[in-house]
Design brief:
The complex is a heterodimer. Chain A is α+β, with helices and mostly antiparallel strands. Chain A has one domain: Hypothetical protein apc22750. Chain B (Translation Initiation Factor IF3). In chain A, a hairpin with a 3-residue loop joins strand 3 and strand 4. In chain A, helix 2 runs parallel beside helix 4. Chain A is elongated, with a radius of gyration of 26 Å. The relative contact order of chain A is 0.13. Chain B is of the alpha+beta class. Chain B folds into two domains: about 120 residues, Translation Initiation Factor IF3; about 140 residues, no CATH class. Helices cover about 25% and strands about 35% of the residues of chain B. Chain B is built from six helices and ten strands. In chain B, the strands form two sheets. Chain B has a five-stranded antiparallel beta sheet with strand order 2-3-7-9-8, sandwiched between helices. A four-stranded mixed beta sheet of chain B has the order 1-5-4-6. In chain B, strand 8 and strand 9 form a beta hairpin. Chain B starts with 9 loop residues before the first helix and ends with a strand. The chains are: A alpha+beta, B alpha+beta. At the A-B interface, helix 1, strand 1, helix 2, strand 2 and helix 3 of A face helix 4, helix 6, strand 8, strand 9 and strand 10 of B.
Protein backbone atom coordinates (compact mmCIF):
# COMPACT_ATOMS: atom_id res chain seq x y z
CA UNK A 1 0.00 0.00 0.00
CA UNK A 2 1.45 3.39 -0.93
CA UNK A 3 1.62 6.38 1.41
CA UNK A 4 0.65 4.26 4.38
CA UNK A 5 2.48 4.71 7.66
CA UNK A 6 5.36 2.31 8.14
CA UNK A 7 5.01 -0.39 10.76
CA UNK A 8 6.44 0.75 14.04
CA UNK A 9 7.16 -0.98 17.32
CA UNK A 10 6.28 2.22 19.18
CA UNK A 11 2.49 2.31 19.65
CA UNK A 12 2.50 6.12 20.17
CA UNK A 13 4.35 6.72 16.92
CA UNK A 14 2.14 4.22 15.09
CA UNK A 15 -1.09 5.85 16.28
CA UNK A 16 0.18 9.37 15.45
CA UNK A 17 1.22 8.18 11.98
CA UNK A 18 -2.17 6.53 11.42
CA UNK A 19 -3.93 9.73 12.53
CA UNK A 20 -1.81 11.77 10.08
CA UNK A 21 -2.64 9.25 7.33
CA UNK A 22 -6.36 9.59 8.09
CA UNK A 23 -6.15 13.42 8.25
CA UNK A 24 -4.47 13.34 4.84
CA UNK A 25 -7.52 11.59 3.36
CA UNK A 26 -6.22 7.99 3.53
CA UNK A 27 -8.61 5.58 1.83
CA UNK A 28 -9.17 1.87 2.23
CA UNK A 29 -7.13 -0.33 -0.11
CA UNK A 30 -9.82 -2.98 -0.06
CA UNK A 31 -12.15 -3.29 -3.05
CA UNK A 32 -15.13 -4.46 -1.05
CA UNK A 33 -16.54 -3.73 2.38
CA UNK A 34 -16.27 -6.49 4.99
CA UNK A 35 -18.59 -7.19 7.92
CA UNK A 36 -17.67 -9.47 10.80
CA UNK A 37 -18.73 -10.27 14.35
CA UNK A 38 -15.29 -11.53 15.32
CA UNK A 39 -13.37 -9.90 18.15
CA UNK A 40 -10.02 -8.32 17.31
CA UNK A 41 -8.25 -11.29 18.95
CA UNK A 42 -10.14 -13.70 16.72
CA UNK A 43 -9.41 -11.63 13.58
CA UNK A 44 -5.69 -11.58 14.46
CA UNK A 45 -5.67 -15.32 15.10
CA UNK A 46 -7.33 -16.00 11.74
CA UNK A 47 -4.76 -13.75 10.03
CA UNK A 48 -1.96 -15.68 11.72
CA UNK A 49 -2.95 -18.83 9.76
CA UNK A 50 -3.60 -16.88 6.55
CA UNK A 51 -7.41 -16.61 6.76
CA UNK A 52 -9.60 -13.51 6.82
CA UNK A 53 -13.25 -12.63 7.57
CA UNK A 54 -15.46 -11.86 4.58
CA UNK A 55 -19.05 -11.31 5.63
CA UNK A 56 -21.51 -11.62 8.48
CA UNK A 57 -23.93 -14.34 7.36
CA UNK A 58 -27.31 -15.55 8.56
CA UNK A 59 -29.50 -18.63 8.33
CA UNK A 60 -33.02 -18.96 9.71
CA UNK A 61 -35.97 -21.31 9.49
CA UNK A 62 -39.34 -21.62 11.19
CA UNK A 63 -41.11 -25.00 11.04
CA UNK A 64 -44.62 -25.84 12.18
CA UNK A 65 -45.56 -28.25 14.96
CA UNK A 66 -49.05 -29.65 14.72
CA UNK A 67 -51.55 -28.71 17.35
CA UNK A 68 -52.42 -31.36 19.91
CA UNK A 69 -49.11 -33.22 19.87
CA UNK A 70 -48.03 -31.97 23.29
CA UNK A 71 -50.91 -33.76 25.04
CA UNK A 72 -50.45 -37.11 26.78
CA UNK A 73 -49.20 -40.09 24.77
CA UNK A 74 -46.46 -42.66 24.53
CA UNK A 75 -43.02 -42.76 22.91
CA UNK A 76 -41.49 -40.03 20.82
CA UNK A 77 -43.36 -36.93 19.65
CA UNK A 78 -42.61 -37.09 15.96
CA UNK A 79 -43.83 -33.66 14.89
CA UNK A 80 -41.63 -31.48 17.16
CA UNK A 81 -38.61 -33.76 16.63
CA UNK A 82 -39.03 -33.50 12.84
CA UNK A 83 -39.71 -29.76 13.01
CA UNK A 84 -36.53 -29.22 15.02
CA UNK A 85 -34.36 -31.29 12.70
CA UNK A 86 -35.88 -29.76 9.56
CA UNK A 87 -35.50 -26.19 10.88
CA UNK A 88 -31.84 -26.63 11.88
CA UNK A 89 -31.06 -28.35 8.56
CA UNK A 90 -32.73 -25.62 6.48
CA UNK A 91 -31.12 -22.80 8.49
CA UNK A 92 -27.65 -24.38 8.18
CA UNK A 93 -28.14 -24.88 4.42
CA UNK A 94 -29.11 -21.20 4.01
CA UNK A 95 -26.12 -20.10 6.08
CA UNK A 96 -23.87 -22.14 3.80
CA UNK A 97 -25.45 -20.63 0.67
CA UNK A 98 -24.98 -17.06 2.02
CA UNK A 99 -21.37 -17.90 2.79
CA UNK A 100 -20.78 -19.31 -0.71
CA UNK A 101 -22.31 -16.29 -2.42
CA UNK A 102 -20.11 -13.96 -0.32
CA UNK A 103 -17.03 -15.88 -1.46
CA UNK A 104 -16.39 -17.54 1.90
CA UNK A 105 -14.93 -21.01 2.31
CA UNK A 106 -16.70 -21.61 5.59
CA UNK A 107 -18.49 -20.04 8.54
CA UNK A 108 -16.93 -19.91 12.01
CA UNK A 109 -18.28 -18.92 15.40
CA UNK A 110 -21.87 -19.78 14.50
CA UNK A 111 -24.26 -18.86 17.29
CA UNK A 112 -27.13 -21.33 17.44
CA UNK A 113 -30.42 -19.91 18.69
CA UNK A 114 -33.25 -22.47 18.92
CA UNK A 115 -36.67 -21.72 20.37
CA UNK A 116 -39.28 -24.43 20.76
CA UNK A 117 -42.81 -23.01 20.85
CA UNK A 118 -46.03 -25.03 21.17
CA UNK A 119 -46.82 -24.64 17.46
CA UNK A 120 -43.51 -23.90 15.78
CA UNK A 121 -39.76 -24.28 16.18
CA UNK A 122 -37.62 -21.23 15.35
CA UNK A 123 -33.94 -21.58 14.48
CA UNK A 124 -31.56 -18.67 13.80
CA UNK A 125 -27.86 -19.05 13.01
CA UNK A 126 -25.38 -16.16 12.85
CA UNK A 127 -21.69 -16.44 12.01
CA UNK A 128 -18.82 -14.93 10.04
CA UNK A 129 -17.85 -16.28 6.62
CA UNK A 130 -14.07 -16.71 6.32
CA UNK A 131 -11.62 -17.65 3.57
CA UNK A 132 -7.88 -17.88 2.96
CA UNK A 133 -6.46 -14.36 2.46
CA UNK A 134 -6.84 -12.90 -1.04
CA UNK A 135 -8.49 -16.01 -2.45
CA UNK A 136 -10.98 -15.11 -5.13
CA UNK A 137 -11.88 -18.76 -5.79
CA UNK A 138 -15.33 -19.77 -4.57
CA UNK A 139 -16.14 -23.18 -3.11
CA UNK A 140 -19.35 -25.07 -3.77
CA UNK A 141 -19.99 -26.40 -0.28
CA UNK A 142 -18.56 -24.21 2.46
CA UNK A 143 -18.34 -25.64 5.97
CA UNK A 144 -20.53 -24.40 8.83
CA UNK A 145 -19.05 -24.59 12.30
CA UNK A 146 -20.04 -23.36 15.73
CA UNK A 147 -16.39 -23.42 16.81
CA UNK A 148 -14.90 -20.07 17.78
CA UNK A 149 -12.13 -18.65 15.58
CA UNK A 150 -9.67 -19.70 18.30
CA UNK A 151 -10.87 -23.30 18.17
CA UNK A 152 -10.83 -23.20 14.36
CA UNK A 153 -7.17 -22.08 14.40
CA UNK A 154 -6.26 -24.85 16.85
CA UNK A 155 -8.15 -27.47 14.81
CA UNK A 156 -6.48 -26.24 11.62
CA UNK A 157 -3.07 -26.48 13.29
CA UNK A 158 -3.77 -30.08 14.35
CA UNK A 159 -4.50 -31.13 10.78
CA UNK A 160 -8.29 -31.38 11.07
CA UNK A 161 -10.97 -29.59 9.04
CA UNK A 162 -14.57 -28.73 9.97
CA UNK A 163 -17.26 -30.07 7.63
CA UNK A 164 -20.59 -28.84 8.94
CA UNK A 165 -23.03 -28.59 11.79
CA UNK A 166 -24.13 -32.00 13.08
CA UNK A 167 -27.37 -31.94 15.05
CA UNK A 168 -30.11 -34.10 16.48
CA UNK A 169 -33.19 -33.63 18.63
CA UNK A 170 -35.81 -35.81 20.22
CA UNK A 171 -38.90 -35.13 22.33
CA UNK A 172 -40.28 -38.05 24.34
CA UNK A 173 -43.34 -38.44 26.59
CA UNK A 174 -42.57 -39.29 30.20
CA UNK A 175 -45.40 -41.73 30.94
CA UNK A 176 -47.56 -41.11 34.00
CA UNK A 177 -47.26 -43.40 36.99
CA UNK A 178 -50.51 -45.16 37.81
CA UNK A 179 -52.39 -43.88 40.84
CA UNK A 180 -51.39 -46.83 43.05
CA UNK A 181 -47.66 -46.41 42.31
CA UNK A 182 -47.85 -42.65 42.86
CA UNK A 183 -49.55 -43.18 46.24
CA UNK A 184 -47.08 -45.87 47.29
CA UNK A 185 -44.11 -43.70 46.37
CA UNK A 186 -45.49 -40.48 47.87
CA UNK A 187 -43.38 -40.69 51.03
CA UNK A 188 -40.40 -42.64 49.65
CA UNK A 189 -36.96 -41.67 48.42
CA UNK A 190 -37.31 -43.38 45.08
CA UNK A 191 -36.08 -43.02 41.55
CA UNK A 192 -38.83 -42.05 39.12
CA UNK A 193 -37.93 -44.51 36.40
CA UNK A 194 -40.55 -43.15 34.01
CA UNK A 195 -38.65 -39.83 33.88
CA UNK A 196 -35.20 -41.46 33.82
CA UNK A 197 -36.22 -43.77 30.99
CA UNK A 198 -37.73 -40.88 29.01
CA UNK A 199 -34.46 -38.94 29.40
CA UNK A 200 -32.47 -41.96 28.18
CA UNK A 201 -34.81 -42.53 25.24
CA UNK A 202 -34.64 -38.88 24.17
CA UNK A 203 -30.88 -38.80 24.60
CA UNK A 204 -30.20 -41.95 22.61
CA UNK A 205 -32.39 -40.86 19.71
CA UNK A 206 -30.99 -37.31 19.60
CA UNK A 207 -27.36 -38.43 19.87
CA UNK A 208 -27.88 -41.05 17.18
CA UNK A 209 -29.43 -38.44 14.88
CA UNK A 210 -26.51 -36.09 15.50
CA UNK A 211 -23.99 -38.82 14.71
CA UNK A 212 -25.94 -39.85 11.62
CA UNK A 213 -25.91 -36.26 10.34
CA UNK A 214 -22.13 -36.24 10.92
CA UNK A 215 -21.70 -39.53 9.05
CA UNK A 216 -23.69 -38.15 6.11
CA UNK A 217 -20.94 -35.50 5.83
CA UNK A 218 -18.32 -38.29 5.95
CA UNK A 219 -17.02 -36.93 9.24
CA UNK A 220 -14.58 -38.74 11.48
CA UNK A 221 -16.27 -37.28 14.56
CA UNK A 222 -18.12 -34.40 16.14
CA UNK A 223 -16.34 -31.89 18.41
CA UNK A 224 -17.66 -29.19 20.72
CA UNK A 225 -20.95 -31.01 21.31
CA UNK A 226 -23.49 -28.99 23.26
CA UNK A 227 -26.61 -30.52 24.73
CA UNK A 228 -29.82 -29.23 26.27
CA UNK A 229 -32.12 -31.58 28.14
CA UNK A 230 -35.09 -31.53 30.45
CA UNK A 231 -38.85 -31.05 30.57
CA UNK A 232 -40.35 -28.67 28.01
CA UNK A 233 -41.42 -25.36 29.54
CA UNK A 234 -45.03 -25.53 28.37
CA UNK A 235 -45.42 -29.35 28.50
CA UNK A 236 -43.69 -30.65 31.65
CA UNK A 237 -44.58 -34.26 30.84
CA UNK A 238 -42.38 -34.13 27.71
CA UNK A 239 -38.62 -34.55 27.92
CA UNK A 240 -36.61 -32.82 25.21
CA UNK A 241 -33.00 -33.52 24.31
CA UNK A 242 -31.07 -31.57 21.67
CA UNK A 243 -27.45 -32.00 20.67
CA UNK A 244 -25.28 -30.20 18.15
CA UNK A 245 -21.60 -29.79 17.37
CA UNK A 246 -19.12 -29.44 14.53
CA UNK A 247 -18.46 -32.48 12.34
CA UNK A 248 -14.73 -32.78 11.58
CA UNK A 249 -12.45 -34.95 9.48
CA UNK A 250 -8.71 -35.40 9.36
CA UNK A 251 -7.43 -33.25 6.47
CA UNK A 252 -3.70 -33.89 7.00
CA UNK A 253 -2.03 -37.27 6.54
CA UNK A 254 -1.99 -37.74 10.29
CA UNK A 255 -3.01 -35.86 13.41
CA UNK A 256 -0.43 -33.20 14.22
CA UNK A 257 0.24 -33.14 17.94
CA UNK A 258 0.05 -29.73 19.54
CA UNK A 259 2.76 -29.53 22.13
CA UNK A 260 1.74 -26.75 24.47
CA UNK A 261 4.33 -24.77 26.35
CA UNK A 262 3.86 -24.73 30.10
CA UNK A 263 3.65 -21.21 31.50
CA UNK A 264 3.38 -19.89 35.03
CA UNK A 265 1.69 -16.47 34.92
CA UNK A 266 3.12 -13.95 37.37
CA UNK A 267 0.06 -11.67 37.28
CA UNK A 268 -1.37 -13.02 40.54
CA UNK A 269 -4.82 -11.68 41.24
CA UNK A 270 -3.99 -10.95 44.89
CA UNK A 271 -4.83 -7.32 45.48
CA UNK A 272 -2.85 -6.74 48.65
CA UNK A 273 0.35 -8.48 49.75
CA UNK A 274 0.02 -10.06 53.16
CA UNK A 275 3.32 -11.26 54.61
CA UNK A 276 1.70 -14.12 56.52
CA UNK A 277 4.53 -16.57 55.79
CA UNK A 278 7.07 -14.11 57.23
CA UNK A 279 5.26 -14.39 60.56
CA UNK A 280 5.42 -18.16 60.48
CA UNK A 281 1.68 -18.67 59.71
CA UNK B 1 -33.12 20.62 21.98
CA UNK B 2 -33.64 20.57 18.27
CA UNK B 3 -30.28 19.57 16.87
CA UNK B 4 -26.56 20.17 16.95
CA UNK B 5 -25.26 23.47 18.26
CA UNK B 6 -27.67 23.49 21.17
CA UNK B 7 -25.71 22.06 24.10
CA UNK B 8 -27.04 23.09 27.51
CA UNK B 9 -25.31 26.22 28.81
CA UNK B 10 -23.69 24.28 31.68
CA UNK B 11 -22.07 21.71 29.39
CA UNK B 12 -19.35 23.91 27.81
CA UNK B 13 -18.55 25.33 31.28
CA UNK B 14 -18.10 21.83 32.67
CA UNK B 15 -16.04 20.67 29.72
CA UNK B 16 -13.72 23.70 29.97
CA UNK B 17 -13.07 23.19 33.68
CA UNK B 18 -9.49 21.97 33.18
CA UNK B 19 -9.78 18.47 34.65
CA UNK B 20 -10.93 15.53 32.57
CA UNK B 21 -13.55 12.86 33.21
CA UNK B 22 -13.59 9.47 31.53
CA UNK B 23 -15.61 6.26 31.35
CA UNK B 24 -12.46 4.14 31.05
CA UNK B 25 -11.46 1.47 33.53
CA UNK B 26 -8.00 1.88 35.03
CA UNK B 27 -6.43 -0.81 32.76
CA UNK B 28 -8.07 0.79 29.68
CA UNK B 29 -6.91 4.23 30.86
CA UNK B 30 -3.33 2.96 31.21
CA UNK B 31 -3.45 1.26 27.80
CA UNK B 32 -4.69 4.46 26.15
CA UNK B 33 -1.90 6.55 27.72
CA UNK B 34 0.57 3.95 26.46
CA UNK B 35 -0.77 4.46 22.91
CA UNK B 36 -0.60 8.23 23.18
CA UNK B 37 -4.33 8.77 23.64
CA UNK B 38 -5.07 11.46 26.24
CA UNK B 39 -8.64 11.44 27.64
CA UNK B 40 -10.20 14.90 27.71
CA UNK B 41 -13.76 14.28 28.81
CA UNK B 42 -16.70 11.91 29.25
CA UNK B 43 -19.10 12.95 26.52
CA UNK B 44 -22.74 11.99 26.20
CA UNK B 45 -25.80 12.55 24.07
CA UNK B 46 -29.47 11.96 24.85
CA UNK B 47 -32.65 11.97 22.83
CA UNK B 48 -36.22 11.05 23.79
CA UNK B 49 -38.23 10.13 20.69
CA UNK B 50 -41.93 9.65 20.31
CA UNK B 51 -42.97 7.13 17.66
CA UNK B 52 -45.69 8.73 15.58
CA UNK B 53 -46.48 6.06 13.03
CA UNK B 54 -49.86 4.96 14.40
CA UNK B 55 -53.06 6.74 13.45
CA UNK B 56 -54.61 8.38 10.41
CA UNK B 57 -52.38 8.67 7.36
CA UNK B 58 -49.86 6.26 8.81
CA UNK B 59 -48.21 3.83 6.43
CA UNK B 60 -48.48 1.19 9.20
CA UNK B 61 -51.38 -0.54 7.44
CA UNK B 62 -50.91 -3.21 4.84
CA UNK B 63 -51.33 -2.12 1.22
CA UNK B 64 -54.90 -2.16 -0.11
CA UNK B 65 -53.96 -4.46 -2.96
CA UNK B 66 -51.57 -7.41 -3.15
CA UNK B 67 -50.16 -5.83 -6.28
CA UNK B 68 -49.36 -2.44 -4.69
CA UNK B 69 -46.67 -1.63 -2.17
CA UNK B 70 -47.61 -0.24 1.24
CA UNK B 71 -46.65 3.39 1.86
CA UNK B 72 -43.10 3.99 3.05
CA UNK B 73 -42.00 0.64 1.69
CA UNK B 74 -38.25 0.06 1.40
CA UNK B 75 -36.21 -2.36 -0.61
CA UNK B 76 -37.92 -5.51 0.67
CA UNK B 77 -41.44 -6.55 -0.29
CA UNK B 78 -42.77 -10.06 -0.82
CA UNK B 79 -46.35 -11.06 -1.55
CA UNK B 80 -47.94 -14.45 -0.83
CA UNK B 81 -51.12 -15.65 -2.49
CA UNK B 82 -53.78 -18.07 -1.25
CA UNK B 83 -54.08 -21.20 -3.40
CA UNK B 84 -57.74 -21.83 -2.48
CA UNK B 85 -59.62 -19.25 -4.53
CA UNK B 86 -62.50 -17.38 -2.84
CA UNK B 87 -63.40 -18.99 0.50
CA UNK B 88 -64.95 -16.21 2.61
CA UNK B 89 -64.56 -12.53 3.34
CA UNK B 90 -62.48 -13.39 6.44
CA UNK B 91 -60.16 -15.71 4.57
CA UNK B 92 -56.65 -14.29 4.23
CA UNK B 93 -56.36 -14.53 0.48
CA UNK B 94 -52.98 -12.81 0.38
CA UNK B 95 -50.17 -11.87 2.72
CA UNK B 96 -47.23 -9.57 2.67
CA UNK B 97 -43.76 -9.21 4.18
CA UNK B 98 -42.33 -5.73 3.94
CA UNK B 99 -39.71 -3.45 5.37
CA UNK B 100 -41.06 -0.83 7.76
CA UNK B 101 -38.90 2.13 6.77
CA UNK B 102 -40.81 4.51 9.04
CA UNK B 103 -39.82 2.43 12.08
CA UNK B 104 -36.19 2.36 10.93
CA UNK B 105 -36.21 6.11 10.20
CA UNK B 106 -37.63 6.91 13.65
CA UNK B 107 -35.03 4.73 15.42
CA UNK B 108 -32.20 6.19 13.35
CA UNK B 109 -33.41 9.74 13.98
CA UNK B 110 -33.25 9.07 17.73
CA UNK B 111 -29.87 7.37 17.63
CA UNK B 112 -28.32 9.92 15.27
CA UNK B 113 -29.59 12.87 17.35
CA UNK B 114 -28.06 11.38 20.53
CA UNK B 115 -24.85 10.43 18.71
CA UNK B 116 -24.59 13.88 17.09
CA UNK B 117 -24.93 15.55 20.48
CA UNK B 118 -22.17 13.38 21.91
CA UNK B 119 -19.90 14.28 18.97
CA UNK B 120 -20.73 17.94 19.50
CA UNK B 121 -19.57 17.72 23.11
CA UNK B 122 -16.39 16.00 21.93
CA UNK B 123 -15.69 18.82 19.47
CA UNK B 124 -16.25 21.31 22.27
CA UNK B 125 -13.23 19.85 24.11
CA UNK B 126 -11.12 19.63 20.94
CA UNK B 127 -11.19 15.81 20.80
CA UNK B 128 -9.68 13.87 17.93
CA UNK B 129 -11.67 10.72 18.68
CA UNK B 130 -14.23 9.10 21.00
CA UNK B 131 -13.40 5.69 22.44
CA UNK B 132 -15.30 3.14 24.55
CA UNK B 133 -18.66 4.21 23.12
CA UNK B 134 -21.74 2.54 24.60
CA UNK B 135 -25.32 3.15 23.57
CA UNK B 136 -28.70 2.15 24.92
CA UNK B 137 -32.25 2.63 23.73
CA UNK B 138 -35.09 1.80 26.06
CA UNK B 139 -38.80 2.53 26.28
CA UNK B 140 -39.88 5.26 28.67
CA UNK B 141 -42.96 4.90 30.90
CA UNK B 142 -45.33 6.57 28.43
CA UNK B 143 -46.48 4.67 25.36
CA UNK B 144 -44.49 5.02 22.14
CA UNK B 145 -41.60 6.96 23.69
CA UNK B 146 -38.02 5.72 23.66
CA UNK B 147 -34.89 7.19 25.21
CA UNK B 148 -31.54 7.02 23.42
CA UNK B 149 -28.33 7.47 25.39
CA UNK B 150 -24.87 7.46 23.78
CA UNK B 151 -21.75 7.77 25.93
CA UNK B 152 -17.99 7.69 25.31
CA UNK B 153 -14.63 9.11 26.31
CA UNK B 154 -13.28 11.93 24.15
CA UNK B 155 -9.54 11.62 23.50
CA UNK B 156 -6.72 13.57 21.85
CA UNK B 157 -3.95 11.83 19.87
CA UNK B 158 -0.66 13.14 21.26
CA UNK B 159 1.48 14.48 18.39
CA UNK B 160 -1.36 13.76 15.95
CA UNK B 161 -3.25 16.19 13.72
CA UNK B 162 -6.98 16.88 14.10
CA UNK B 163 -9.22 14.49 12.15
CA UNK B 164 -10.39 15.41 8.64
CA UNK B 165 -13.07 18.13 8.76
CA UNK B 166 -12.69 18.34 12.54
CA UNK B 167 -15.11 15.38 12.94
CA UNK B 168 -13.80 13.07 15.68
CA UNK B 169 -13.54 9.38 14.85
CA UNK B 170 -15.36 7.00 17.20
CA UNK B 171 -15.24 3.37 18.26
CA UNK B 172 -16.94 0.90 20.59
CA UNK B 173 -13.44 -0.30 21.55
CA UNK B 174 -11.07 1.02 24.19
CA UNK B 175 -7.87 0.05 25.95
CA UNK B 176 -6.05 -3.11 24.92
CA UNK B 177 -8.64 -4.03 22.28
CA UNK B 178 -8.12 -0.68 20.58
CA UNK B 179 -4.34 -1.13 20.84
CA UNK B 180 -4.63 -4.53 19.15
CA UNK B 181 -6.84 -3.06 16.42
CA UNK B 182 -4.12 -0.52 15.61
CA UNK B 183 -1.46 -3.20 15.85
CA UNK B 184 -3.46 -5.19 13.27
CA UNK B 185 -3.31 -2.17 10.95
CA UNK B 186 -6.83 -0.74 11.31
CA UNK B 187 -7.77 2.83 12.22
CA UNK B 188 -11.28 3.39 13.67
CA UNK B 189 -13.53 5.66 11.60
CA UNK B 190 -16.94 5.63 13.25
CA UNK B 191 -19.37 3.54 15.24
CA UNK B 192 -22.21 2.13 13.16
CA UNK B 193 -25.63 1.28 14.58
CA UNK B 194 -28.52 0.34 12.31
CA UNK B 195 -31.92 -1.26 12.61
CA UNK B 196 -34.16 -3.14 10.21
CA UNK B 197 -37.85 -3.79 10.77
CA UNK B 198 -40.02 -6.24 8.85
CA UNK B 199 -43.78 -6.68 9.19
CA UNK B 200 -45.36 -10.05 8.44
CA UNK B 201 -49.03 -9.99 7.39
CA UNK B 202 -49.81 -13.69 7.27
CA UNK B 203 -51.77 -15.23 4.43
CA UNK B 204 -54.00 -18.26 5.01
CA UNK B 205 -51.26 -20.92 4.83
CA UNK B 206 -48.96 -19.07 7.25
CA UNK B 207 -51.85 -18.40 9.64
CA UNK B 208 -52.89 -22.06 9.52
CA UNK B 209 -49.40 -23.43 10.11
CA UNK B 210 -48.56 -20.94 12.88
CA UNK B 211 -51.74 -22.08 14.65
CA UNK B 212 -50.62 -25.71 14.53
CA UNK B 213 -52.46 -26.85 11.42
CA UNK B 214 -51.22 -29.42 8.91
CA UNK B 215 -51.36 -29.13 5.14
CA UNK B 216 -53.35 -31.65 3.14
CA UNK B 217 -56.15 -34.01 4.09
CA UNK B 218 -55.45 -36.98 6.29
CA UNK B 219 -52.01 -35.89 7.34
CA UNK B 220 -50.96 -37.16 10.72
CA UNK B 221 -48.56 -35.70 13.23
CA UNK B 222 -45.79 -37.48 11.32
CA UNK B 223 -45.62 -34.47 9.01
CA UNK B 224 -44.10 -31.04 9.54
CA UNK B 225 -43.79 -28.02 7.28
CA UNK B 226 -41.47 -25.10 6.98
CA UNK B 227 -43.43 -21.85 7.41
CA UNK B 228 -41.90 -20.20 4.40
CA UNK B 229 -43.30 -16.70 4.83
CA UNK B 230 -41.98 -16.38 8.40
CA UNK B 231 -38.61 -17.99 7.56
CA UNK B 232 -38.18 -15.52 4.69
CA UNK B 233 -39.00 -12.62 7.03
CA UNK B 234 -36.38 -13.80 9.55
CA UNK B 235 -33.75 -13.92 6.82
CA UNK B 236 -34.83 -10.63 5.28
CA UNK B 237 -34.71 -8.60 8.49
CA UNK B 238 -31.12 -9.68 9.17
CA UNK B 239 -30.00 -9.17 5.57
CA UNK B 240 -31.62 -5.70 5.52
CA UNK B 241 -29.78 -4.68 8.68
CA UNK B 242 -26.51 -5.86 7.13
CA UNK B 243 -27.29 -3.94 3.91
CA UNK B 244 -28.03 -0.76 5.89
CA UNK B 245 -24.65 -1.13 7.61
CA UNK B 246 -22.85 -1.81 4.34
CA UNK B 247 -24.24 1.41 2.87
CA UNK B 248 -22.34 3.33 5.56
CA UNK B 249 -19.12 1.39 5.07
CA UNK B 250 -17.73 2.40 1.68
CA UNK B 251 -14.80 0.02 1.21
CA UNK B 252 -14.08 -0.21 4.92
CA UNK B 253 -14.61 -3.04 7.41
CA UNK B 254 -17.30 -3.35 10.07
CA UNK B 255 -15.56 -4.93 13.01
CA UNK B 256 -16.88 -6.67 16.14
CA UNK B 257 -20.51 -6.56 15.06
CA UNK B 258 -23.15 -7.47 17.60
CA UNK B 259 -26.51 -8.69 16.34
CA UNK B 260 -29.69 -8.31 18.35
CA UNK B 261 -33.06 -9.50 17.07
CA UNK B 262 -36.57 -9.42 18.47
CA UNK B 263 -39.90 -10.74 17.34
CA UNK B 264 -43.34 -9.67 18.46
CA UNK B 265 -46.46 -11.60 17.58
CA UNK B 266 -49.30 -9.17 16.81
CA UNK B 267 -51.97 -11.60 15.60
CA UNK B 268 -52.49 -15.07 14.19
CA UNK B 269 -49.27 -15.50 12.24
CA UNK B 270 -48.72 -11.74 12.09
CA UNK B 271 -45.37 -10.58 13.43
CA UNK B 272 -43.02 -7.64 13.67
CA UNK B 273 -39.34 -8.58 13.45
CA UNK B 274 -36.51 -6.21 14.27
CA UNK B 275 -32.76 -6.62 13.95
CA UNK B 276 -30.14 -4.21 15.27
CA UNK B 277 -26.47 -4.31 14.26
CA UNK B 278 -23.75 -2.42 16.09
CA UNK B 279 -20.06 -2.34 15.30
CA UNK B 280 -17.05 -0.16 14.54
CA UNK B 281 -16.21 0.95 11.01
CA UNK B 282 -12.44 0.57 10.63
CA UNK B 283 -10.06 1.35 7.74
CA UNK B 284 -6.90 -0.57 6.92
CA UNK B 285 -3.89 1.77 6.96
CA UNK B 286 -1.08 -0.72 6.43
CA UNK B 287 -0.56 -3.84 4.40
CA UNK B 288 -1.66 -7.26 5.58
CA UNK B 289 1.01 -8.28 8.06
CA UNK B 290 -0.03 -11.38 9.97
CA UNK B 291 1.39 -11.94 13.40
CA UNK B 292 3.37 -15.16 13.91
CA UNK B 293 1.26 -18.25 14.51
CA UNK B 294 0.48 -18.34 18.23
CA UNK B 295 2.22 -20.82 20.50
CA UNK B 296 -0.21 -22.98 22.49
CA UNK B 297 0.35 -22.75 26.22
CA UNK B 298 -0.96 -24.42 29.37
CA UNK B 299 -1.19 -22.42 32.57
CA UNK B 300 0.28 -23.91 35.71
CA UNK B 301 -1.99 -21.85 37.95
Amino acid sequence: MTDSPAASADPRAELAAAARWLAGGGQSPDERATTSDLSIDEALLLHSIGWEPVELVFGASVCSVQTGVWTWGRGELQSPSDAHNLAVGDAAARLGRECASAGGHGVVGVRVDIEVHPRHVDVALVGTAVRPVATGKKVGHPFVSDLSARDFVLLHGSGWAPLGLAFGASFVYAPRRDAGTALRQASQNVELTNLTEALYAARETAMERMQTSGLRMKAGGVVGVQVTEGPIRFARHVIGFTAWGTAVRLAADAHRHVRPEVVLPLDDAVVQFEAESLRGR
Amino acid sequence: MSGPGDLPEAAPRRLESGSFSSGLTVPDFAACLQMGLRPVGLVQGFCAMQWGWYGAGSPYMRGMSPYAAPGGQGTYLQNWYCPHGFVSAEHRSWGQNYEQTWVEDAWLAGFNAAFGRMVEEAKEVGAHGIIGVTDTSRPMPETNIAEFHVLGTAVVVEDGPPPPGGEPWSTYLAGQRLAKLLEAGFMPISVIAVIASVRVWAYCITEWLMEGGALGWGQTNQSTQEIEQVSEAHLAVRALARDHARRQLGHDTMHGTTVWTSEREVGSGDQVLECTLRGTRVRRFKDFDPMPAPRPTVRLS
